[in-house]
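Batch job 17 of 40 flagged for manual review because the log was empty.
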Amino acid sequence: MKLSAPLAALALATIVLAGCSSSGSDAAGTTKATDAEQTTTTVADTTTTEAETTTTEGGGSDETIPSYEDAKRVYLAQADDTTKAKCDEDSEDHDVVVSSGTYTRFLCSGVERFEYIEGAENYEKNWPTISTEEVYRSVFQVPDELIVVPSGSNEDFAPALADDCGCGEVVDQQG
């Protein structure tokens, strides 16, 4: 027991000294934190850049897959003038929740133009059905991550989306 009291006193003195040294050198502590933050940011930026380069070459990741907005832009760029006019007049991003997952439909004047299905779980649930459809279509996919399904037989949309992002693959189906 006699050793416990000296150890407790030593621990208390260490805590008090640590507290004093922290409050007495705020400027130095701030500089060290800033240096650490800058180092962390630099490392994170470098890591992200390397991942983007590797992923682009590999074809598919959260960093390289086209966003829903990218898909809309590419769709409208390859659409005919009548479709563009209808989409300028009345378009809607319609979120759909079904048993196979959640996805977004792009509608123009109430007509579906494409479905954007993102995420590994959505991909896994939807790809078997989409890939065995009996209707001709050209589907864009990033395996295990994204499926973009044009309505009808718009065979130009999927290749245009693949060219735009430099990722994924086009799967042509014919029923």
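Reviewer: the log was empty due to a logging misconfiguration, but the result itself is present. The first helix runs from residue 4 to 24. Unflagging and moving on to job 18.
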